[in-house]
Structure to design on (195 residues):
């Protein structure tokens, strides 16, 4: 067996022109080549999708930063606890704030738990002074880009490896069947100790 990894990899892919390869071995080698191609395509696809998702996320950040404005709001009541499973505990509280146009506004806002009446908090508003969620941050953009950039390629690679596994299973079943058929031909003529 060759110690050179490149030679071994070429043999694994079926590029060694081995005359002893059976048709099922050639089929398995073809599936291996397909898996390698899908893996390479998945890496390129992941890079492209990740870059695109990151660019879209940065544009969304910039758009939201232009459209949403931080302002100081005064709470009109104590915050009542409202714990959420996937985020910080917040409370919906009545508050008052001034909009960009200088008009006074009142409404329900999300405040940190244990906030008290007359406490100042930062809220985000749109051009009309209505409360909106905080703008998207860079961390969210990076996580979204990484998720898209790795999730899609990972799914492609797992699918192609599953195809390789099924192919190997079918090839081994066929090889065992061929060995059994060959043994039924040889067994009657098999002699032990010349008998």
């Amino acid at each position: 067996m060759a110690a050179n990894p490149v030679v071994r990899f070429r043999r694994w892919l079926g590029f060694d022109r081995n005359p002893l390869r059976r048709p099922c071995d050639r089929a398995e080698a073809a599936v291996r080549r397909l898996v390698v191609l899908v893996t390479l395509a998945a890496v390129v696809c992941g890079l492209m999708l990740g870059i695109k998702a990151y660019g879209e996320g940065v544009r969304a950040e910039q758009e939201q930063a232009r459209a949403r404005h931080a302002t100081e709001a005064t709470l009109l009541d104590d915050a009542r606890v409202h714990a959420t499973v996937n985020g910080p505990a917040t409370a919906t509280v009545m508050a008052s704030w001034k909009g960009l146009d200088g008009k006074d506004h009142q409404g329900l806002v999300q405040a940190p738990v244990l906030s008290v009446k007359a406490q100042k908090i930062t809220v985000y508003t749109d051009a009309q002074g209505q409360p909106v969620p905080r703008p998207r941050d860079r961390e969210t953009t990076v996580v979204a880009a990484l998720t898209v950039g790795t999730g899609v390629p990972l799914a492609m690679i797992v699918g192609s490896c599953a195809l390789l596994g099924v192919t190997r299973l079918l090839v081994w079943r066929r090889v065992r069947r061929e060995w059994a058929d060959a043994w039924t031909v040889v067994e009657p003529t098999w002699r032990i100790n010349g008998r």
Observations:
- Residues 81 and 111 are 10 Å apart (CA to CA).
- The chain has two domains: 5-61+140-187, 69-134.
- Residues 138-186 form the longest helix (49 residues).
